[in-house]
Design brief:
Largest sheet: 7 strands, antiparallel
Shape: elongated
């Protein structure tokens, strides 16, 4: 039997406990509550906005409130609190007057937009005055946009690093979209997080071994095939041949996959011997012949200091197979031979490896990277300091600009009033207190009263997130296959 994520598909239960009591806590005669989501700062100066559409389609769209769900929530919360705090009347009102659809409006910057931190990314408000309490009830769920947004930001930042070194040391940037491969499925906290996190990575790149990312992109962003992979060995498929059978294991890889790229892990015992003697001498002719048929051997070291190992592997392979010099004066392996570094790859280590390659005369075009935990898991909500805060209310017919300004942490000061995200001359500016120019507002109504009003395709998201350097060099997306 399959079970829903978190053990429930009841939207009334996807919140923090204390939210259930908040309808008692607002001032009398409150009719409108408006909140917003932003990155208040963080590791990266800009964020790639992504993943809200997934949450809307997954949880909020359509008639999501039913009699059965209300009764289930009532019974659970009464037992949870030992008191009848649950707003059964309010949820019944939504069921009876809105056919179970949420009377709520969400306006957001287009998905894939790259927005400097400290700017509003989306706003939420109730559309029925009797449902003022609804806006912040869904903070818990909506704030989870932080995860795909942060993965997409981290991934794009690594793309910037790779693009920089390709621009400096390679003849072409055509391979950029396949330079960082997602190995993160097994290290994710859940199948669902691997799916949306892996999809966030695919906003920027085309390579992935995370199958749930492919299915998530297809279901929620209409992309038939968002990511691609190649045949590749793991240690078990090499070491089961035994130490004395490593050469035969390598031969098997070359013959089982005679065309196209194939990656073979080569550090099961002695990476230096594997590169110099097995690949570089004993199987050299097979590799060259396979290359004449379009085959590419991708040698994978998987242990040791990444920068040191990559340079030594390149040097050994370069000596064995000979190198050429590209137009920028950097060494290139033959086109049938490449290296993939899939161990210890992060935003920080990428630059170290690529700088070491450049310093040793190697083009960045010789290598691709694989990343797991650092790509999908080594982050949290504070990586980009994501927060959801109330900024505006109508109480007794009076408009109120709402904000917080803790004396102990000025970084947590929140924005006031109705907000617009103005975009002009390539720059984003958040305007507070209802003083913005609506014609310049980049926020688009994406959800209203149970309906998804804007359905972004994955191609649109990728185009919005593309690097300016790529636009200048190629005039098209780096994920165009």
């Amino acid at each position: 039997m399959a079970y829903p994520a978190g053990g429930t598909d009841n939207i009334l239960l996807i919140t923090d406990s204390y939210k259930v009591t908040h309808h008692y806590q607002y001032p009398p005669n409150t009719t409108v509550v408006c909140s917003y989501f932003e990155s208040r700062g963080g590791k990266f100066p800009s964020t790639v906005f992504f993943g809200l559409q997934y949450i809307i389609k997954r949880f909020l769209e359509g008639p999501v409130v039913t009699k059965e769900k209300i009764e289930e929530a009532r019974d659970l919360y009464n037992a949870h609190f030992g008191h009848e705090y649950f707003n059964e009347e309010g949820w019944n009102y939504i069921l009876e007057n809105h056919d179970g659809k949420l009377p709520m409006r969400i306006k957001a910057v287009p998905e894939g937009s790259v927005v400097p931190y400290k700017n509003v990314l989306f706003t939420v408000e109730n559309t029925d005055p009797k449902c003022f309490w609804l806006t912040n009830y869904f903070e818990t769920l909506l704030v989870q946009t932080w995860y795909p947004m942060t993965v997409a930001t981290n991934s794009r930042s690594q793309k910037e690093v790779i693009a920089k070194y390709l621009d400096e040391t390679a003849d072409s940037m055509d391979g950029l979209g396949f330079k960082l491969h997602d190995f993160g499925f097994r290290g994710s906290t859940s199948v669902e997080s691997a799916g949306i996190g892996g999809t966030a990575h695919l906003v920027n790149f085309c390579g992935s071994d995370t199958i749930t990312a492919i299915t998530t992109a297809k279901r929620f962003y209409g992309c038939d095939m968002a990511g691609f992979s190649i045949p590749a060995a793991e240690h078990s498929t090499i070491t089961t041949w035994g130490r004395d059978g490593e050469k035969e294991a390598f031969i098997n890889m070359l013959t089982q996959f005679p065309n196209g790229p194939m990656a073979c892990v080569s550090d099961s015992y002695d990476i230096w011997n594997a590169c110099e003697n097995v690949w570089g001498k004993e199987l050299k002719d097979m590799i060259i012949t396979r290359g004449q048929n379009g085959g590419v051997l991708v040698v994978r070291p998987d242990s040791g200091d990444p920068a040191e190992v990559v340079i030594k592997v390149l040097n050994i392979l370069g000596n064995a197979f000979k190198t050429t010099e590209n137009s920028k004066g950097y060494k290139m392996l033959p086109p049938y031979l490449r290296v993939i570094q899939g161990d210890g790859i992060s935003y920080e280590s990428l630059g170290e490896i690529l700088e070491a390659m450049k310093s040793n005369g190697w083009s960045a075009d010789n290598i691709v990277f694989g990343s797991g935990g650092a790509l999908l898991q080594r982050m949290d909500r504070d990586t980009q300091k994501c927060a959801y805060k109330c900024s505006y209310a109508v109480i007794g017919g009076k408009e109120v600009n709402v904000y917080k300004n803790p004396i102990t942490d000025v970084g947590k000061k929140s924005k006031k009033g109705r907000l617009t995200l103005e975009y002009e001359n390539g720059k984003y500016t958040t305007v507070e207190e209802g003083k913005g120019n609506p014609t310049l507002d980049a926020l688009v109504t994406v959800f209203e009263n149970g309906k998804l009003l804007k359905d972004y395709t994955f191609a649109e998201v990728r185009e919005n997130a593309e690097l300016e350097l790529v636009r200048q060099r190629r005039g098209q997306s780096s994920c165009k296959v």
